[in-house]
Amino acid sequence: MKNTFDKARAAENTSREAIEYLERASSMNAMTASLVSGDMKFSDAFLLFTRLSLLVTRRRPEIAVHCILIHVMPHIGEVKVSAINRMLVNQLVNPLILESKIVMGRRVFALMKQFLGWCAYQGMIETSPLNDISLNKVAGGAKPNPRERRLTDAEVWVFWNVWDYFHVCPGTKWAARLCLVAARRPDEVLRAKVSEFDLKLGVWNQGTRNKSARQHAMPLSTLMKLCVSELIKYGKGSQWLVPSNKKKGGDTPMSKVAIAQALRRILERPELMELEPFTPRDLRRTARSYFPALGITQEVSRKIMNHSLEGMDRVYDRHDYMDQMRDALEKYSNRIASIVEQVDLDDIDHKFKGDRLATELIRVNFL
User: Fold this and answer.
1) Which of 171, 221, 250, 281 could serve as 238's disulfide partner, Cβ 3.0–4.6 Å?
2) Beta strand pairing status for 197-198 and 216-219?
3) What is the rounded distance in angstroms from the CA atom of residue 180 to the CA atom of residue 296?
4) Segments of 11-162 assigned E as strands
5) Three-state DSSP class for 219?
6) Which residues contact 137 (CB under 8 A, 6 or more apart)?
7) Overall pTM > 0.85
C-alpha cells in the first residue's frame, strides 16, 4: 500500500499546512487506522480517509487536501460525520459558486461525495446523503468553458522573438521556446534533468514524469536540440535542464511558474497592448493545431502529445512510432523555423483564418 507522497513536488503546488497534514496521515499506524467509529468528527474521519484512500489512489493527494483544509475544515471540522447532510454540503459549495469559483465548488462537492461514500463503506453512516446527486447538478450544471486559445503564425513570431527584445533570463527564454517546439507542458520542461536527453541519438526519454504517468520518449527535432543545447549551456553543469536563476549552485530547478510569470509581465507591456493575452498552456494547443495542416496523422499526434490511443488501439497498438514522430516533429520544427526566422511580421504568410493580431502596430512597437 502506498503511504508516501512526493513531498518535493507537492511543496510546489500546495501550502505548508497541506504538506504537514499529509505527513501526519502518512505516519498513521494500523492501530489508529482501525479506530473507525460512527461518532467520529469530520476532522478525524477525513484524516483517516486521507490515509486509507487519498494516499492510496491519488497521484496528487495534496490538491484534494489543500482544498478541504481551505474550504471545508474551518466550517465543519468539529461536526460529526453522522450529522453531515446534503444541505450542509451545499452550504459549503454555494458561496464558492456565488464567487464564480465553479471549479473549486465542483471540487469540494466531488471530494465530499467521495468522502461520504467511503464513510458509508466503512460503516460510519448508513448511506451517503450525496449518493444520488450527480456532480453535474453543481451550479446548475455549469462548467468553465475549456480554453481554445491557440497562437496564429504572427503570434508565434512575437512569442519566439519577444524574449530577446526584453532581455529575459536565457533559462526562461529557451525553456519557453522548448515548450512550444516540443509541445510539452511547462512543468515537464522545468522539471527535466539533463540526463533525460541524448543529443547524439536525438532522444528525450521523459520516463513517467508527465501528467498521465505513462512511459514516454520522443525524438528531438532541430529546434528542440537547439533549445536543449542552449539550456545545458545555461545550466553550467547542473543536473537540471533549467536550474533556478534565483538560487546559486544549480542544485534547484527553476520555479514551475517562472515562464507564466515572465510571459504575463511581458504581455502587459505597452508595446504588446494589441496582442490578445495567452498563457504557456496555450502553446501545447498551438502545436497540436499545426499537426493536421502538416499532414501528421492522429495516431502520431497522440504519441507526440502522450495521449492514449482510442478504442482497441489502446490495448493492441504497442508500436513506439519513434520514426514517425521524428518525421512529424521535424516537419513541425521546419514550420516554426519558417515563421520565427522571418525578418518581421510583414513577411509572414498568415495561412490560418481569423488572425487576431494587428500586425502593423505590433511591428512598429516591437521592432
Assistant:
1) 250
2) unpaired
3) 17
4) none
5) strand
6) none
7) no
Cell numbers standing for residue 86:
446534503
Distances (CA, A) of 244 to 164, 252, 256: 19, 6, 10
CA 107, chain centre distance (Å): 16
List of domains in the chain = 7-141 (1.10.150), 153-366 (1.10.443.10)
Q: What is the pLDDT of residues 124-162, one digit of tens each?
A: 999 999 998 998 888 776 666 667 788 989 899 999 999
Residue 74 DSSP class: H
Residue 104 neighbours by CB under 8 Å, 6+ apart: 67, 71, 96
Enter the C-alpha cell of residue 31: 492501530
What's the pLDDT score for residue 316? 39
Question: Any idea which residue has 497522440 for its cell?
Answer: 302
Which residue pairs, CB below 8 angstroms and at least 24 apart, start in 246-255?
253/190, 253/191, 254/171, 254/172, 254/175, 254/190, 255/12, 255/190
Helix (H, G, I), strand (E, B) or coil at 203: strand
E strand residue ranges, 210-367? 216-219
Give the end-to-end CA distance of the chain in Å, rounded to a whole number.
58
